[in-house]
């Protein structure tokens, strides 16, 4: 196999791992509140990344924490809002709606009139599942807005990630960012700790979520990006909502209507089209929810 083929396969495994982890997380929402699961995931992921990258060995530039804190805060709130949205809407829909964040950022910095097509397609996808469409395929209003909020935080995460990327190597930067994310989520998660949180099943599945949604895919994506063209990476990433919908179907029993599939397809086409037509695609950095 060529390096390109191996990189594509590696990225596909990473995306599958992320969505498999999300489906795992949703399965224990009946035992523990999503905020508590987010707290457990970010805390365990932070411990793992800190042990791997050991950022304390670096001599951080003066004022580096000015960039690390907003980067980590955006990461933590993004994960919190995403998991809260999963409590109310299907996994595939949540992932698709969240993609409007990085897509909107890419379109915002573009100056090409052709991008109106991608804006219309993304807006159409949101409208098809919104309560205002008067369709049986509409989703919970609060869940939709939570996913949109997660997408907005994803866009901020990209912006802050670019700023921090010029000052700190990606591995240690992500470890420190995840540490800040865990601290930001901590007060929200601690408010929902109950007897269910002490069950061994919750900690076991929480550990699997941290491994599958953060540690493993991050490592795999780092490998894939070494030999994968930026546009190829972005186009493959655009397929993730469909992958999430399949995970939701097989592991959560979430059956989407034809209209909901059309809405997802509309957003996915907008994301892939924006990536293909852009001279310098805005590719989401690692550790998406």
Key descriptive features of the protein:
single chain; 289 residues; mainly alpha; globular
Descriptive report:
The longest helix has 26 residues, at 200-225. The chain is 73% helix and 0% strand. The model has no long low-confidence stretch (mean pLDDT 88). Helix 2 packs antiparallel against helix 3 (65-86), helix 4 packs antiparallel against helix 11 and helix 10 packs antiparallel against helix 12 (258-277). The chain contains twelve helices and no strands. The protein has 289 residues and is mainly α.
Concise account of the structure shown:
The chain has 289 residues and is mainly alpha-helical.
By secondary-structure content and strand pairing, the structural class works out as: mainly alpha
Described by the principal axes of the CA atoms, the overall outline is globular
Helix content: over 70%
| CA radius of gyration | 18 Å
Report how far the terminal alpha carbons are from each other: 30 Å
Instruction: Give the count of helical stretches.
Output: 12
H/E element sequence: HHHHHHHHHHHH
Please count the beta strands (DSSP E, at least 2 residues each): 0
Largest sheet: none
Percent of residues in beta strands: under 5%
On the 0 to 100 scale, the average pLDDT is 88
Unreliable stretches: none
How does the SSE layout of this entry go?
Layout: H1 3-27, H2 34-53, H3 65-86, H4 91-98, H5 100-108, H6 116-129, H7 141-165, H8 170-190, H9 200-225, H10 230-237, H11 240-252, H12 258-277
């Amino acid at each position: 196999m060529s390096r390109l083929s191996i990189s594509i396969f590696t990225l596909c495994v990473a995306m599958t791992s992320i969505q498999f982890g999300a489906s795992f997380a949703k399965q224990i929402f009946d035992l523990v509140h999503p905020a508590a699961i987010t707290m457990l995931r970010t805390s365990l992921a932070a411990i793992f990344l800190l042990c791997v990258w050991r950022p304390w060995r670096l001599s951080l530039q003066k004022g580096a924490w000015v960039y690390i804190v907003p980067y980590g805060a955006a990461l933590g709130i993004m994960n919190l809002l995403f998991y809260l949205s999963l409590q109310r809407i299907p996994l595939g829909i949540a992932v698709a709606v969240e993609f409007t964040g990085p897509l909107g950022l890419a379109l915002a910095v573009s100056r090409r009139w052709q991008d109106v097509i991608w804006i219309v397609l993304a807006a159409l996808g949101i409208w098809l599942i919104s309560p205002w469409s008067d369709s049986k395929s509409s989703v919970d209003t609060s869940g939709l807005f939570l996913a949109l909020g997660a997408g907005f935080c994803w866009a901020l995460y990209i912006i802050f990630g670019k700023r921090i990327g010029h000052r700190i190597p990606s591995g240690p930067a992500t470890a420190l960012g995840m540490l800040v994310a865990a601290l930001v989520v901590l007060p929200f998660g601690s408010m929902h700790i109950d007897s269910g949180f002490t069950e061994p099943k919750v900690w076991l599945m929480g550990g699997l979520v941290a491994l599958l949604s953060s540690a493993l895919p991050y490592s795999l994506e780092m490998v894939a990006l070494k030999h994968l063209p930026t546009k190829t990476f972005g186009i493959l990433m655009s397929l993730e909502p469909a992958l999430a919908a399949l995970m939701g179907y097989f592991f959560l029993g979430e059956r989407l209507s034809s209209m909901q599939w059309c809405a997802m397809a509309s957003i996915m086409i907008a994301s892939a089209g924006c990536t293909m037509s852009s001279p310098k695609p805005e590719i989401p950095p690692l550790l998406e929810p």
